[in-house]
Amino acid sequence: MRTYVTYISGKTLEEKGIKSKKNCLYSLDSSFIVQNTIMAKFIEVGRNFWNIRGSYQIYCGLIEIGTQMSMIRLSNNRFLLLDTVPIDAIAKTTFDQMTDHGRLIEGIVATHPFHTSSWPSWYHWYPNTHYYGTPRHYRLFPDIPWIGDVSDPITQQLWEREGIFMKIPDGSTFDPEDESNHFSSLFVYHSLSRTLHISDTITIEENPNLLLRCFGIYPGYMRFWPLKKGLRKNQQAPKEFQEFMEIILDQWDFDNLVVAHHGVKIGGAKEEVRKLLNSSRQTIDRLSEK
Ligand SMILES: [Fe+2]
Question: Structural domain boundaries of the chain?
Answer without folding.
Answer: 35-288
